């Protein structure tokens, strides 16, 4: 496919992803104006209360999905050997740690003098995190995204802002989270401030994946890099595309029932779109025997999710959740079952990188296989 044709195809896919949720709104007969409010302020989705049957059913479903992976991880006995190219902890890693500590204190301390600045703590906090996790990867392997692939990492910041704005858009149709303590902001100020925060998501997850990949236990027992024996058929990808599209289209009609589709449906659509064009995708990789790379992406998102929720819990400017049927047993602000959403979100991070950046710079299997930096003389 030519670049021009591929570009138009991607634009069509973007329009499809944006238009689908409005079908449910039209079927429901809700006024469109409330979904377009910016910055979003009103809460117009009435959520169902806690339900033990739904909670238990979802918990069992999550356990069933994770059980095969967990079984392999628990039974595996990885060979722990010295990591070639191991380096010291770099100075810029200590700088990142100082930035994390300073921004953390700014976000959590309550002082009249700090109030005007506390809404801006999120971005430096996560920039510090990105520096630290890159430094940890460098310490173990002598390599990291920051030093070895700075252009790739820099591109993720811009892509990340667009990426998370899409999820903010989808949240308009289910209102599973909303923000508090951000103060009155003009639309321009809100867009600018939020975009700076959203820009750190993909770099944080990708950098965490690199660090986790340097630990043998992180993906122990999971097959990786095996020869591919074909993959899903075209009919399967068409079915996947249709199912994801249906879930996204009906999201606004039944937000309480279909709220998981906010995370799963775009992943299904993007994976199917890549597969139908014969491009790399995680589903084909998994069916070909590579389970380790998708798991590392899922685990990286869950790791970042823990820190997102922890730092959010004590911040003046923060988000809070309204999740139907399962809103109980919170860890920080997030209901315990909600953490399962970070697993497909990690796959979504990898998939959107494949979609936009393709296989350049190593695609999403970013672990280095060459000699360590200090050996490249």
Strand-helix topology:
Blueprint: H1 3-19, H2 21-28, H3 52-75, H4 91-108, H5 122-141, H6 145-148, H7 150-171, E1 177-180, H8 187-198, H9 201-213, H10 234-249, H11 255-258, H12 261-276, H13 282-287, H14 292-313, E2 318-321, E3 330-331, E4 334-335, H15 342-357
Antiparallel strand pairs: 1-2, 3-4
Helix pairs in contact: 4-5, 5-9, 7-8, 7-9, 9-14, 10-12, 12-15, 14-15
What can you see in these coordinates?
This protein is mainly alpha-helical. It has one domain. It contains 15 helices and four strands. Strands 1-2 form a two-stranded antiparallel ribbon. It has a two-stranded antiparallel ribbon with strand order 3-4. α10 packs antiparallel against α12. The longest helix has 24 residues. The protein is globular and about 60 Å long. The C terminus is likely disordered.
Total number of domains: 1
Largest sheet: 2 strands, antiparallel
Number of helices: 15
Which term fits the overall shape? globular
Q: Low-confidence parts, pLDDT < 50 over ≥5 residues?
A: 367-377
Per DSSP E runs of 2 or more residues, the count of β-strands stands at 4
Along the chain, the helix and strand elements come as HHHHHHHEHHHHHHHEEEH
- What is the first-to-last residue Cα distance? 40 Å
Strand content: under 5%
Class computed from helices, strands and strand pairing = mainly alpha
- CA radius of gyration is 21 Å
Query: What's the rounded overall pLDDT mean?
Result: 90
Helix fraction by DSSP (H/I, runs of at least 4): 55-70%
Strand order of the largest sheet: 1-2
Question: In a nutshell, what does this entry contain?
Answer:
This protein is 58% helix and 3% strand. It contains 15 helices and four strands. The protein has helices at 3-19, 21-28, 52-75, 91-108, 122-141, 145-148, 150-171, 187-198, 201-213, 234-249, 255-258, 261-276, 282-287, 292-313, 342-357, and strands at 177-180, 318-321, 330-331, 334-335.
